[in-house]
């Protein structure tokens, strides 16, 4: 008993240590983004204020921003500020980055959540049907279409959508206001490109499960296909499906940057892409940190769900 | 039952051979167009000719002209050289670099292995394209900067893969035998272990080429990576997106070419993988 609880303690310590390494790694890499960038924040901020910039003023500002301190100290200061919600000031329009992200973050979360939901709604049934009709006509069509969609760049698909639905048919607005009509195109583009990949994975997962001996056993006992699918095959496939979900979320977050900027969806991706041409490093930095944090949280949530779904893992972890 | 299965397998083997040959030919054709196409262009891809700006596709300019009167088709072919060879370069570097790191981690074990794997984990903690944006933003525009950004994203797969393969082979009997004969660690790695990992690495690399082409085009499209006036598919589409309403053909032809190139490489990677899988099954 004591041994077992000791084991659990050890496992927790390792897990917390790993999470800490990850967080330090993520924040340090992101910190380097501004630290290594060729611009001098003191000069840019002073230039915006319209004051006469003398060497003394510049030096004073550098002192104030802590730019003369060693790198590790600067990292500590930056991290402390970040944890307290201060993500610096945008070089471009002198607004605080936190202010910009307070609006953009929920918009991005909304877009990715809707797109993820759409992806699951589209690809789970199609993948299952494709697996059941393996090598049939339906399966052939599904595989061919998904193959084509995997190879389409998301930004090209987005531009085609914009051209057809907004410019030619005038069904949907060119600028994606945060509304029901505005979210249709960006979420559709994101979910279509991801679904192509997803359907193939779901098909493979279900096929593997259908080949398991227990399915043959159930069939020979005369259990209906419907109940085999819903109460056995799908339940057993939940764990690999969850892993798929966690993995694909990163693709979705990365893809959202381009799609948001094409459809002018007011999210973090659009902020970041706009910031690139303006060399607005604090905004890019905040974007990178937040994306990594969201990705990490999703991965941890999926880990927890995984344990709930798969009793074997749950038992192993005590 | 067994016979039927074997018969089916050999039949599949033959058709997979044909697919491999066809897709290899398609890849070679694409590479040839990218390498030598430049010498057969009807127009100079960088020649500005304002009198001929925004011509829709016509007999002189099959794919039309852009805002500066440059021939769209010529720029696509010139851009192919950049886009395709940049992707091949990135994949080549990540394959060597990643494999090396994985081999070192797998063989050294202990603290070095632990540290290297933690670094891999941190790189993988970022959504791939977000990491590429971050590194691209530090380095600024330029093809080399874009390549480094993509190398930073793609090397982790190879490091983890080669490490796990090394760990699997490490205790194989032939490695033990080599050790007994006094072979040096480097000889073991280069003569016995690496040749064994080569097949899996090559397939992974072949499957990555299409993805890297897409990522590079994506980076250039948002203003990182290749910058104007370089003829690179993503950069050209970025420039053309401002005139999308009046001159949609620039984006259309570039996008379709990009799409076809990715399909060609994906088909090649898939048939290569099938070939390797069937070999393994027949063993």
List keywords for this structure.
heterodimer, A: 318 residues, mainly alpha, MetI-like fold, 2 domains, 81% helix, flat, B: 283 residues, 9 helices, 0% strand, elongated
CATH topology of chain B: MetI-like fold
List the helices and strands of chain B in order. HHHHHHHHH
Succession of helices and strands of chain A = HHHHHHHHHHHHH
User: Which structural class best describes the helix and strand composition of chain A?
Assistant: mainly alpha
Q: What this model shows, in words?
A:
Chain A has 318 residues and is mostly helical. In chain A, 81% of the residues lie in helices and 0% in strands. Chain A contains 13 helices and no strands. In chain A, helix 6 (137-150) packs across helix 8 (180-210). The N and C termini of chain A lie close together (11 Å). Chain B has one domain (15-45, 65-282): MetI-like fold (Orthogonal Bundle). Chain B is elongated and about 75 Å long. The chains are: A mainly alpha (318), B mainly alpha (283).
Compact summary:
Chain A has 13 helices and no strands. Chain A has 318 residues and is mostly helical.
Topology:
The complex is a heterodimer of chains A (318) and B (283).
Chain A: H1 2-35, H2 41-49, H3 55-65, H4 71-83, H5 97-132, H6 137-150, H7 154-168, H8 180-210, H9 213-220, H10 225-262, H11 268-278, H12 281-309, H13 311-317
Helix pairs in contact in A: 1-4, 1-12, 2-3, 5-6, 5-8, 5-10, 6-8, 7-8, 7-10, 8-10, 10-11, 10-12, 11-12, 12-13
Chain B: H1 2-36, H2 72-108, H3 110-125, H4 128-139, H5 143-170, H6 173-180, H7 185-221, H8 233-240, H9 248-282
